What we know:
Layout: E1 3-8, H1 19-34, E2 41-43, H2 54-60, H3 62-77, E3 81-86, H4 92-102, E4 107-111, H5 132-136, E5 155-158, H6 165-173, H7 182-189, E6 193-199, H8 220-233, E7 235-242, H9 250-257
Parallel strand pairs: 1-2, 1-3, 3-7, 4-5, 4-6, 6-7
Helix pairs in contact: 1-9, 3-4, 7-8, 8-9
Amino acid sequence: MSVRVVGLLCPTSDRRDFAGDDTAALASLLARTAGMADGPRLIGSAAQASPARFEDDLRERRGCLLEAGGQVEDALREGDRPVLVAASCSVCTTTIPAVLRERPDTVVLWLDAHGDFNTPDTTPSAYLGGMCLAAACGVWDDGLGAEPKLDPSQIVFHGVRDLDAAERDLLDGFAVEILEHPSQVLDAVRGRPVFVHLDLDVLDPELLPTEFPAAGGLTDGALKQLLRDVCREAELVGAEIASFAAPDRLALCAAAAGPLAEV
């Protein structure tokens, strides 16, 4: 199976100007790892951010959000493993349903400092990036129409350490647990098809400055080893990588995420 690295440069719920430029840089290094001689497939253009509520992003960035899912679906249907690089986790509103259309039994390994499981009723920030996984699960309607929705029982959380109180209550209600040890993660995914969501803020902020830092994250070595082990123990269906915002740490992030792009 070939690996298809796609850089989504157009804004989704970006909060940094021209975040797509950093996305393109990371996608280019990962494309080298994947052996893509012509480089990654780059979609859209980087642009200025316009801080907005989730309703505004869903309306104004709808095309880019739908394109994310379309790129993942195209790769899977053509027999490739997609690795989508984007500025925001919001892409999961369409990428996860795209994966489920092709592989409905897929487990989502959520490697992120945050749960992104707020709803319009619980969000303290109205930020789409903090609500996107709940939307992908159908807990609230984002209006994008991406189907099917993910059953929360198919989520494996690791590295999540910054949850709002109401968000935690929602996750508890769906019995979604945070697995603390890598061995628990491997037990949960062993022998199963897996789609990896990697928000680079899962790394400790002392290693990688991010927009929404949360202390106590993984080291780059621990992340790389976990991804290697997951690729060995499970069937890697595809991956998405979000929130790269530190150009001076480009090599570190590309190396840590590298196993996702290895053929």
